[in-house]
Description:
Blueprint (H helix, E strand, L loop, with lengths): L4 E4 L9 E7 L6 E2 L4 E6 L4 E5 L4 E4 L8 E3 L3 E6 L2 H6 L35 E4 L9 E7 L6 E2 L4 E6 L4 E5 L4 E4 L2 E2 L4 E3 L3 E6 L9 E2 L48 H9 L18 H6 L3 H5 L14 H13 L4 E8 L2 H9 L4 H15 L6 E3 L3 E3 L6 E7 L3 E3 L2 E2 L7 H16 L5 H4 L4 E5 L18 E5 L7 E8 L5 H16 L5 H4 L18 E6 L3 H12 L4 E5 L6 H5 L2 H20 L14 H25 L2 E5 L1 E6 L2 E5 L7 H4 L8 E10 L18 E2 L13 E5 L3 H13 L2 E5 L11 H12 L4 E4 L3 E8 L2 E7 L5 E6 L1 E4 L37 E3 L10 H15 L12 E4 L4 E6 L2 H6 L4 E7 L4 H6 L5 E7 L4 E9 L2 H14 L3 H6 L9 H21 L1
Parallel strand pairs: 15-18, 22-25, 25-26, 28-29, 28-33, 29-30, 33-42, 34-41, 35-36, 35-41, 36-37
Antiparallel strand pairs: 1-8, 2-4, 2-7, 3-6, 4-5, 6-8, 9-17, 10-12, 10-16, 11-14, 12-13, 14-17, 19-27, 20-21, 22-23, 22-24, 26-27, 31-32, 32-33, 38-39, 39-40, 43-44, 44-47, 45-46, 46-47
Helix pairs in contact: 7-10, 12-19, 14-15, 14-17
The protein binds flavin-adenine dinucleotide.
Amino acid sequence: MAEPYLIRMPKLSDTMTEGRVVSWEVEPGERVTRGTVVATVETDKAIMDVEVFREGYLAGPLAAVDSMVAVGEPIGRLVDDRDEALSADAGATDTTPGPEAAPSPEAEERPAAQPQAVPRGAHPVKMPKLSDTMTEGTLVSWEKDIGEHVGRGTVIAQVETDKAIMDVEVFREGYLSGPIAEVDSVIPVGEPIAYLVGDAGKVSEARREAAGAAPPSAPPAQPAFVPSGTPKAKTKIPAMPHGATPAPRPRGSRATPYARQLAGAHGIDINSITGSGPGGLIIAADVVASDVPKSTALRVFQVPGAGRPMDAMEKAVAHSMVYSLSMPLFRVTVHIHPEGLLAAAKDADSSLTVALAKAAALAIAEHPKVNSVYQHEDRIVERSQIDIGLAVETEGMGLVVPVLRDVGGKDLPALNAHWRDLVNRARLRRLKPEEYSNPTFTISNMGMLGVSQFDAIPAPGTSAIFAIATGGPQGMPVTITADHRIINGADAAKFLATFKDYVESPQRWLLGAGAAATSSVAAGIPQGDWDYDVVVLGGGPGGEDCARELAQHGKRVALINDGPLPGGECLWRGCIPSKTWRAGADRMRDRRHDARLGVLGTNAPRLDWGALEATRRRVLESRGEMALKTDKGMKVDYVQGFARFESEHSVLLDTSGNSNDPHRRAAPGRGDGRKLRFGAAVIATGAPPFVPPIDGADRAGVMTSDTVWELDAPPKRLVIVGAGAIGLEMAQMFADFGSEVLVLEAQQRPLAEVEAEIARLLVGLLETDPHLDLVTSARVESISGEPDAMRVTYGDAEGQRHHFDCDRVLMATGKRPVLDPLQLDSAGVQTDKGVIPVDPQCRTNVGHIYAVGDVIGGLMLAHTAAQQGRVAAAALLGEPAIYDQARDCGVIFTRPQAAFVGLSAEQAKDAGIDAVEVKVPLSIDAKAMITGETDGLIKMIADKAKGRVVGVHFLADHADTLIGEAVMMVSAGLTLEQVARAIHPHPTQTELFGDMARRLLARLRRTAKARK
Ligand SMILES: Cc1cc2nc3c(=O)[nH]c(=O)nc-3n(C[C@H](O)[C@H](O)[C@H](O)COP(=O)(O)OP(=O)(O)OC[C@H]3O[C@@H](n4cnc5c(N)ncnc54)[C@H](O)[C@@H]3O)c2cc1C
């Protein structure tokens, strides 16, 4: 036999190093000729076809759709023989659903992929045919372990058919044995998924080889009750909800637990059933055989035509509705204005559906009858947990009712994460029975379909349902349909009134709910005889934005800041001074590109430190004075002094000295006793540099980001301890100024807040700088010597000790709030792990005291602090607003710049989002080629289900301006379509956003097509 021909990932451009398999255009075993397009792959530029250059039959293993494959690596094979192609191991690396997973004609004859592992005398448990259309099933879970003894009627596994997830019961006794099918594998109908052996000693542990990955299957049945598919197969047992109350043991006979559970869930009298198991044992199939259709058969109206059998979904709905006929129902309608909830839900990044469910749960908690259910033995089952089924119309699969569990007990972020996950999986048809069964209350929201009035029928096991229609001038009609046996008209009316109240007053619960009600005090400024409505402690970006916002709304505000001018760390010791140095360094660095654009004589720039420093000081002073003028103009009372809490409504001030003095901040004076009484307070006191207890770290010559500004010239040799944003920015700037820089980082991966690939590429680029060295996994042991003659001793990853002689050392080892001097105890404000914890509205555990910015931890960035300041102000003004880190952003001002907004693919996955990513290298961009700024890439991350951009990540020069558009995409939740359609000016790098969106859309279309 000739050697198989390997189809490799082609190199379709100079920059291409890897490609993503988008689709297979040919099925394994299909004959191809020279020039046939067998697959499409996505390169860094576009989606391209993969042609083959000889004849043959396509054979596996095929690279999985969506997988990344390095250029030159095989993605599939061509063989000369069709049988060989068909028998090749297509599933080993291929996750493409479809042809290779389909049963071949021989499959029926081959009981297992590894016949040699089948124990002698073993009885196969086969993939059952659960509907007429079913040809294969996906193994969802094993309910029993290999070696476990099982009896007739035992449910051993769950499989997913093209319609729903169903249980697999066995009909003989034995020990469960391999080869067993792997969870998630697709097995043709009739093929063994496991074996039963009579002797525990014969049990085989072997696994059946997978035939392919699970294809997306059909929607789960809506209600719990899903009777069998075709009448003749006994295995067609309904999907059974977990947690259903089993029927009592039958009198005078025995029943399997599953049969009792099934009978209990559907109110079937188990005593009336004759068991077909050994000794008259009642099994699940007997319960199904005895079920509702018999009692309803008499009511059939004869119409012309033969009819067709209903599918499982149709039957499930029909049987549920018949069951509901036993309920005496009545209806009550109110009109509700949901606009406030709509806005608050948007601000809280909550889906309106989830917010409505939460409002319903709060109302149910006050009217628990609505959560009870009547049982035919004249019993009421009262339930403490509120599980809300939410009917959603999904494209292509009709109505689905996933159940949000424990809506009363969970906070809004948790409910939203759960809901996103349920909806995503519902769309993929991967819901488990317990995820769409047994709600205690249901909401049907047809408002989104434009329905102006409707009512709904409660599902079996519930007593009431909400029907929500489209709003009109009177508001949004909400109709409750309720079971009159336990709920009367007044109950329903009161319940609706409470629900209306929750929906129309979301500020009472929605925003606080995000923090699991950390404080029982309502938002707003307590009334009283105060000196100020609000005092804000700290005049950095967090405090200043907060104070201005409050003053703009007419509140009396004192901005207490420990310095003559506002601005905080950002202005005096952080963003602005460091970016002044960066601007000088940029000018020097950019000169390197001049010659390639024909500009000569500029390649030997020299730094005038004095001039640069004069510019820096000028910018700082004028920005500080401008800020103070603006504060005063806005009627913010700027009070210079260091504040500490005296009580939960008063602070004492220390006005004894100047601020901005890092040496004083650690040990402020006790204060001159001036006291300010306030209604509410906002703590925005920042976080100064943290220096770990390293031997010699307190020596002269060891600087921090507070004191580095005292340098009278760039050091010739500089050690920077810490490779975070501040450390790396400083390292590259000083290297640009001509210093020899050694960066020592304790962690293996610097820049934890930056997307992993971007951080790795940036570190790689920095290391190419001849003036800069970066050692990771380094442990600094000691610092000795005096300024201009210092020595740093450190150990490397291998434990080797090194010395580095330098002029200065800069500790860039993080920032930590200094909390003791604030005397938070006097106000009852709690701290946790060195920061002040807050809820999404930035409220501390004390209802009228808020904290924002670096002092609360998280992203320690100026715009983050400012946003949190505005959020706290909004809360104090009684407006809904929250801080959402998933939409925050940052720029690391190296060259190229690393920048991020929103989520990385990894973070999106952790948040339960099915994310897709596309990236484009700067090396293909015309503008970057002109300026010689081709290092780096841009990545876009989108939520596959919603088609929205959830993150953009940059390693690019000019990322600080490019990111603006990405910020709008993420904060507004723009769709890929919207970004793709926007007209971007040419030639600019903003065009890359449109390109990426279009590529992602094309990929999603291709993969969707390939999966059909
Ligand atoms: C070198 C460097 C570069 C940086 N670059 C950037 C950047 O490029 N982009 C970015 O977004 N962020 C950057 N940052 C971070 C940014 O400076 C901070 O995140 C931001 O300033 C935090 O704002 P804040 O309002 O929380 O606190 P701060 O800005 O620290 O302001 C707090 C203020 O409160 C005062 N204060 C403290 N205690 C009291 C008290 N008890 N009473 C009265 N006043 C008090 C302090 O003196 C200070 O003025 C940088 C930081 C450094 C060190």
